[in-house]
Amino acid sequence: MAGALELLGVGPGEALDAGMGAGRLLAELAQRGWVVSGIDASAEMVAAARSRLPDSAARLVQGKIESLPFPDASFDAVVATGVLEYSELERALSELARVLRPGGLAVVSYPNPGAYYVVWQTRVWYRFVRAAKRVVRRPARTFPGGSPPVRPDRFHERFAAAGLRQERMEYTAFLVVPSPLDELFPRTTERLGRLLEGSRSRLRQHVAGQVVYRARKPGP
Predict the structure, then answer these.
(1) Beta strand pairing status for 34-40 and 60-62?
(2) How far apart are CA 31 and CA 50, in angstroms?
(3) Which of 192, 191, 215 lies closest to 8 in space, CA to CA?
(4) Domains defined along the chain, listed by start
(5) Region label for 67, one of left (φ > 0), alpha (ψ between -120 and 50) or beta (otherwise)
(6) Residues whose CB is less than 8 angstroms from the CB of residue 2 and which lie 6 or more positions away in sequence, other chains included
(7) What are phi and psi of 39, to 5 degrees?
(8) CA 138, CA 129: separation in Å to the nearest integer?
(9) pLDDT one-digit tens code per residue, 12-36
(10) Whole-prediction pTM value?
(11) Least packed by Cβ within 10 Å: which of 19, 72, 99, 156?
């Protein structure tokens, strides 16, 4: 969230959070001078966001990021954090570009496939957990499918296909301690992650779980 706020900046203007969850980012945007709208696929999350932002409740709706229920060129900024990896990426980016006004900003996050933590989780830890559940005959949890990994140095191509021009990217969500140690030592995990925030160490790109991107829709 901090990375998205930094790349977006302050209002005034109209901003959309696509995949708003319980509205934490929307509340921060409203405090920074934006007139906020939001959408989420979960009715429970929409209700939670409306409770958090009662003055904006009429502009917080249920729907999918691949088919945004807003007219063309409705917003000066769009934000999508923690949602694109569970969507159809090309359609979602095209929809975000569609509802942006010319010159408007898109700030989105996407997992960093090369992060050591991500590689450990997907190739080692999750496989171990699934195997252990089969041994004890416990059903495995299912998670929503989504888009394939995209390297940070290739994400600009996805923006370009949607009609957006990438301007900047920032590594964030630094995870150094692997599972299950991160859950056993949460304070240490958080402390090490915060040490990397704001640093320029080359290690950042290898331990950042997410990358936040800023792109602009070309003006007339």
Answers:
(1) parallel
(2) 16
(3) 215
(4) 2-216 (3.40.50.150)
(5) beta
(6) 172, 197
(7) -145, 145
(8) 11
(9) 999 999 999 999 999 999 999 999 9
(10) 0.86
(11) 72
